[in-house]
Amino acid sequence: MTFATLEAAVSRNAFAGRNVRERAADPLHVLGQIPEVRALADGVVASWHSSLASLQSRRWHRAKFDKPLRVTPLDDQTELPAGAPLAVVGHDISLAGLSFIHSQPLAARKVAIAFQVDETTWETVLTLLKWCRFRRDGLYQSGGQFVRALAGFDGGFRVPEESRLCG
Fold first, then answer.
1. 3-class secondary structure for the chain?
2. Which CATH code for domain 27-149?
3. Environment class of residue 124 by beta-carbon count within 10 Å: exposed (0-12), middle (13-18) or buried (19+)?
4. How many CB atoms lie within 10 A of CB 24?
5. What is the pLDDT along the chain (167 residues), one digit of tens a residue?
6. Is 102 in contact with 165 (CB distance < 8 Å)?
7. What are the angstrom distances between the C-alpha of 88 and each of 12, 57, 129, 133?
8. pTM, whole model, 2 decimals?
9. Handedness of CA 47, 65, 99, 95 (dihedral sign)
10. How far apart, in whole angstroms, are the C-alpha atoms of residue 142 and residue 161?
11. Domain ranges for the chain
């Protein structure tokens, strides 16, 4: 079968659907609904860093992001939930990843991070955790890189409106 025969046998809608799926898996497609990420993508940023050296060492600019999130640990191989979801609070966010504060240790390397888009809608992004540190205040701070959107992921967990990590 030649390429011309294959091209004639496959409808153009099949290729269009593939592009839609690829776009839907792009984490920025989901994260673009968050005002802080939209501002970063539009280039409207301000810095609270004390020196230009800290900015030059980072690939992406960060914005403060102190909103509640839910983090579900995932199995490294299957990417299925591997533990109970945790209520956490974001610390900062960039176009490539985020950091968040949590009260319990988190051993998973892959996590599903759910962002509340509006009162009833949560969007979830697969995130690969790159680092974790124990803070002086007794809490943990972890950071990771966005991998892809997780369509239809439901961790079955609602973040409480008040959290001791907020404020």
1. CCHHHHHHHCCHHHHHHHHHHHHHHCHHHHHCCCHHHHHHHCCCCCCCCCCHHHHHCCCCCCEECCCEEEEEEECCCCCCECCCCEEEEEEEECCCEEEEEECCCCCCCEEEEEEECCCCCEEEEEEEEEEEEECCCCCEEEEEEEEEECCCCCCCCCCCCCCCCCC
2. 2.40.10.220
3. buried
4. 12
5. 443 333 333 333 333 444 444 555 788 777 888 888 887 777 655 555 544 444 444 566 788 999 999 999 999 999 999 999 999 999 999 989 999 999 999 999 999 999 988 888 889 999 999 999 999 999 999 999 999 999 877 655 444 444 445 54
6. yes
7. 44, 27, 14, 15
8. 0.70
9. negative
10. 21
11. 27-149
Is the sign of the CA dihedral 162, 155, 28, 63 positive or negative? positive
